[in-house]
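Technical appendix A lists one of the benchmark inputs used to test multi-chain prediction within the project. The record comprises two sequence entries:
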Amino acid sequence: MNELRKDPILGNWVIISPERGKRPQAYAQLQRVIKKKETVCPLCSGNESLTPPEIYALRPKRSKPDTKGWGVRVVPNRFPALGRKKELVRKRLGMFDVMSGFGAHEVIIETPEHDKNLKDQSVKELSKVLKTFQYRIEELYKDKHLHYCLVFKNEGWEAGASLEHPHSQLIATPVIPKRIKEELVGSRNYFKGRKRCVYCDILSQERKNGERIVYENKEYLAFCPFASRFPFEIWLLPKKHNADFCSRTTKESISLLADALRTTIQKLAQALDNPQYNYVIHTAPNPISRHGYGKNIDRNFHWHIEIIPRLTRVAGFEWGADFYINPMAPEEAARSLREKEIR
Amino acid sequence: MNELRKDPILGNWVIISPERGKRPQAYAQLQRVIKKKETVCPLCSGNESLTPPEIYALRPKRSKPDTKGWGVRVVPNRFPALGRKKELVRKRLGMFDVMSGFGAHEVIIETPEHDKNLKDQSVKELSKVLKTFQYRIEELYKDKHLHYCLVFKNEGWEAGASLEHPHSQLIATPVIPKRIKEELVGSRNYFKGRKRCVYCDILSQERKNGERIVYENKEYLAFCPFASRFPFEIWLLPKKHNADFCSRTTKESISLLADALRTTIQKLAQALDNPQYNYVIHTAPNPISRHGYGKNIDRNFHWHIEIIPRLTRVAGFEWGADFYINPMAPEEAARSLREKEIR
């Protein structure tokens, strides 16, 4: 029943994923729902039978799937937006384009412990989560119909989470999401003639200028982007050019990424009293389905993580026109985050 | 202090509008603020002195500005995102592009009565509001630096409103907002070779098909778009091709538009128990600054209103990738709205 539909004017795809048996009237109540702490958390250690069978887990060698003892665990989303049981079918409905709801929707359970949020995870623990992301993306990219894997985290009810237990999600799609496509086109256009990566140029200017920097270690830089759409928006980039989130798998590099991500989130937590937030990994599309973006994608794109705390309401101006009013200068946001000392 | 900044990768502009004297820490509280009913509403009849001096008002011929007796009143926003006091200055900061915060930000007070929401306004009253929009856009478009006027309404706290009194807003900008630009490009591309407007083709298919129609009168059609991003998203279009919201000024046409808008909002109110919502008018840019979109803009673009009820939370997937999961098939949303009888 789920399907992907293409907007005939803008060209982007939307997932239509009707919740089974949900009547239109049910939406009237949605805005008033308050999250109730589940009495039994399906993501906690010991409750493995409450999730669909696991896809992957970091667990001791001889322990069985769907039993206790794991460190990170990946399961299918119970209400997947997309799935791979059906075939990928493309069709036309009059002037409209449709695809079957082909793809994958996975939940990465970051820790067996219910209360161990990202900011409380050790560098070693968070490294395991990041390596799991890489592993799942690489596995899914073996399917040439999956053009993109979007890894993201919703922390807090307002940010879209419906379970408290620390988890991230991965959605693999047969199309490249609109914003990623725009980044690919934008960075390709910048590269033309210049033969330089736009993100590398930004990194160089931000490091020289310094006023928007939030945190920096040997390999990664976190900063508030010049044209931030939201207060305290942060981008986290590898300082050395790299288009592909999965390509740097040395233990040191993963640890440094975990350090940068953890420190950035801790700074936000300190400055803003544990705000709800989203982060999204922007990486290059599936190497075997990069048609349309040329051979240079490895040279002109630069993977990064975008972190958006949910602090302000988004109004008609933003929705209707994709035009943002940010009430907080990124320089000031960065200064207040830079000042926070993290142990 | 306000300025427009261009994203160096995506090319869109963001308004940086720091609220004076607001410290970074203040954002930590924002998410918990609950709207308090103002004891004195600055938009009510009799309180004209509480707003900046009026720009325009529909009032009896000999009544003085900023006094009682008006029907619709336009005032500058007390905290404008953009203003015309400063000159329009364009400059470069290293690799970044900046513009001074040049533009206009106006509040259209729809009625002197505090509790008369759009759905309770008569066709005659709403017609006056719509004519005021047209008048203000035409006035502002006399300034060739103002490339676009975005008219929108935020109804309810979650939808971004900070005052209860029925009002809409207008933001005039020296750039064309991202989503509008994409529509102009998309409809231009569709027109190429075909010599047909993409919106006219959609209208024709929707009217033939019927299942996504919400309401129709002699001149206007309201329907849930095929690739709706949100549950109960509705587009309202003139059935006869027309690129410019300001160009149909016959009394009958305005009344029919008021009827279509009012009926649509009433249907939403009935079906979803008075949901909060946004609507945004998408019209052609300033005729004297349409560079870059060719001479055919009048033939390939089609003005419309996009109505978005605020029913679901928006999560990381949507923010991070501009890729939407809609849990409600537009056909089902349209059916449930079509069924509602409006007196």
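Chain A touches chain B through 98 residues (CB under 8 Å). The longest strand of chain A covers residues 148-155. Comparable benchmark entries are summarised in Table A2.
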